[in-house]
Amino acid sequence: MRIFSKSVQDPETINLAERRFDVSVSRLKRARRLTLRIDTNASRVKISAPASVDAELVHGFLERNRPWLERQIAARPELEIVRDGSLIPFRGQ
Predict the structure, then answer these.
(1) Is 37 within the bounds of a domain?
(2) I need a surface site. Which of 4, 27, 28, 36 has the fewest CB within 10 A?
């Protein structure tokens, strides 16, 4: 028996700022509006939607907010991979 009932659709992908992001849609019974979040560490865009909203409306919401997503991703610094011998700044130096 599930206490918290929510269904999640299989993630799609979207290309933003020359990067590929998985899109996961969570259908929530208690949600009242569509919300959009970006997880750049996991390269994922998360959409929460009311259970009554159909997939076509969710896709339209994603496309309407594409410019906002691209601005948000461009404003975030690229992740640097730390390798053996890399310099790690301490207190900005």
Answers:
(1) yes
(2) 4
